[in-house]
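SEQUENCE, C-ALPHA CELLS:
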Amino acid sequence: MSRTQIMAILNVTPDSFSDGGALRSLDQVVQAAQEALQAGADILDIGGESTRPNATTISPQAESDRVLPAIRAILEAFPRACISIDTRKAMVAEQALKAGAQMVNDVSGFQYDPAMAEVCGQAGCPVVLMHSQGTPETMQHNPCYPHGVLQAVLQFFERQIDRAQQAGISRHNIILDPGFGFGKTLTHNLTLLHQLDTLKTLGLPILAGTSRKSFLTLGQQTILPIERDALTAASLAMAIERGAKYVRIHNPATQVPVIRFIEATRGVTPEVLPDPAKYQDRLCYDGQ
C-alpha cells in the first residue's frame, strides 16, 4: 500500500457533530458519494448512529433502516465503490455486509457487542478496531489514564487484536484507530498525535480520524466543525508523517489535495547542496 487510503465519511444521521442531517434523502447520499469518489476517496464510510459525546444510542433496527438503503443506493449507482459500515452493533454489521459493504469500522473496538468479532470473522472482511473509553454518553466525563494514554491504547490493541484473531479475523485484515476524541482530553489527543508512530510497533496499519474534531481548536469552541478543515489538514499531515496509512475525513475535496501533496514530497530526490566553502568569500551568489 504505497499511498494513503482515504475513507470519506457519509453520515446518514440527524445528529452527527459535524454534518448531522445534511444527507436527508437517498439522492443526497448518492450525490455525496459521487463527490467523494470524484475527489479521490478510496472508501465510503457509512454511519447511521451518531457517536459524538453525549449522543443517545439507537436500536439496531433503527440504525439498519438508515444505512441499508444508503448502501444499496450507492452500490446501484457505483457498483465498484468500496463501502465501510460504521457501527458498533453486530446485527447492523451483518446486514450491511450482506447488502454489499466490504469492511466494518467499529468505534468500540469490539467492546460494545460481544457478537461483532464473530460476525467479522465469518465474513472475512477488513475491520477497524478503534480505542475508546466509555460510551458516547459518558466518554468525555473526566477521561483518565493513570499510566498514560499511549500505554492504555497499546494494551487495548494487544487485547483486541488477540480477540479478533481468536474469532477468525486474519491479522492482515486488522486496522488500528487510536480514537481521537473518544474518551480523551485535549492533552490525551495531542499526545496520541505526537507519538502516533509508537503504534507502528504493533505491525498493523494505522487509521487517523482527526477530521473536524474539537481538540483541533485547542479549546476555542467558537470555531465550528465545518470551519476546521485547515486544522484537519495540519493534523493529517502530522499523522501521515508519523505512519498513518488510512485517514478518515469529512471533506475529500479539501483534504485529498493536501494528502497527495504530502505524498508527492516523499518521491522527490533531495538536491545535493553546493559546498558552502565555495561561497565563503562572497556576499551573495552573483559575486556582488
Observations:
- The chain has a mean pLDDT of 90.
